[in-house]
UniProtKB/TrEMBL annotation:
Parts forming coiled coils: none
Protein name, entry field: Methyltransferase domain-containing protein
Statement: the UniProt record of this protein carries the keyword Transferase: yes
Record's keyword annotation contains Transferase: yes
One GO process term, biological-process aspect: methylation
Any one GO molecular function term: S-adenosylmethionine-dependent methyltransferase activity
Methyltransferase type domain boundaries: 60-147
CDD domains: AdoMet_MTases (cd02440)
Short name of any one Pfam family annotated for the protein: Methyltransf_11
Keywords: Methyltransferase, Transferase
Length: 282
């Protein structure tokens, strides 16, 4: 058959990011909620706190989204000034002040003014990733830490398979176009190497897990959250979702559950080496 032209969705397009994908936190919350069914569970803000041994100073959360990390850091470390920054003014409306609408590659803060910078599941949306990391380095104090998170390329591979099967059935071919993937541009597989050109030391904390669901809905809500990038993906989005739901229900009826393998991780990036970080441990 002659299919529609397929092109990679531009997951860095600012108009889509601010006007649709993150205009509010609806889609983000749908993606976040799938992790409720993951084992082991990871308290990501708790892990950030664990690796952030500071009580005073300024923390910039770049791409703060709906403020999961901002809220937790403020409540558990009241001595810190935690500023949420995001390219989308809409999603910032869900976070209490201080927040600033800004692009990760052009932070409106002075040199060496932050003790820590976070970019959790954000860099893969940034057009020039190295410029954004260089910007974090510019604003960090000597001895400061940059913490980023992302997923590996093989993260949630079962969803790739499910989507390709559903899309294939909609199009009448063996396998349809692959699922929209956000983290591929800054995948955990090669992110450490990339960050090493900016920092004195980079450590990876791997967060492997398995999501188990007994009904299709949490998975379908997750897949539906990619709708903002669904134009030009070469397959009708709603028809593929409907088919994916049917396939999932069939697998759950047959196996009693559907499992998804997760491979996320956190990257701890130090501006100075460990043996020279006395100033930072305050
Ligand atoms: C996947 S969400 C992550 C939100 C939050 N950090 C979390 O982990 O829950 C990505 C966030 O990055 C923001 N973002 C995307 N591109 C950005 C950019 N160039 N500069 C600043 N924020 C950006 C989006 O608006 C969105 O809120």
């Amino acid at each position: 058959m002659c299919g529609a032209a397929v092109s990679e969705p531009d997951t860095t397009d600012t108009t889509i990011l601010t006007g649709s994908a993150y205009r509010d936190d609806r889609h983000l919350a749908a993606r976040q909620s799938l992790y409720r069914w993951q084992q082991p569970t990871y308290d990501l803000p708790g892990l950030v706190l664990e690796h952030l041994p500071i009580r005073t100073g300024t923390v910039l959360d770049v791409g703060c989204g709906n403020g999961t990390y901002v809220t937790r850091l403020r409540s558990q470390r009241p001595g810190l000034t935690v500023v949420g920054l995001d390219i989308s003014p809409g999603i910032l409306a869900t976070v209490s002040a201080p927040v600033v609408a800004a692009d990760a590659a052009r932070l409106p803060v002075g040199d060496h003014s932050a003790t820590a910078v976070l970019a959790m599941h954000t860099l893969y949306h940034v057009d020039n990733i190295d410029a954004a990391v260089a910007e974090a380095v510019r604003v960090l104090e000597p001895g400061g830490i940059f913490i980023a998170s992302t997923n590996a390329r093989e993260d949630k591979a079962e969803l790739d398979d499910l989507w390709a099967r559903a899309a294939g059935e909609v199009l009448g071919v063996d396998r349809g176009p692959r699922r929209i993937s956000l983290s591929t541009r800054f995948a955990l597989n090669d992110a450490p190497q990339r960050l090493r050109s900016h920092f004195a030391a980079v450590e990876t904390v791997e967060l492997p897990g398995t999501i188990t669901v007994h009904e299709p809905e949490p998975v379908i809500a997750h897949l539906a959250s990619y709708r903002s990038w669904a134009e030009n993906i070469g397959v009708p989005f709603d028809a593929t979702l409907t088919r994916a739901r049917d396939l999932l229900q069939h697998m759950i009826d047959r196996d009693g559950r559907f499992q998804i393998t997760c491979r996320g991780g956190i990257l701890l990036c130090h501006t100075t080496r460990h043996d020279d970080k006395a100033r930072y441990d305050r």
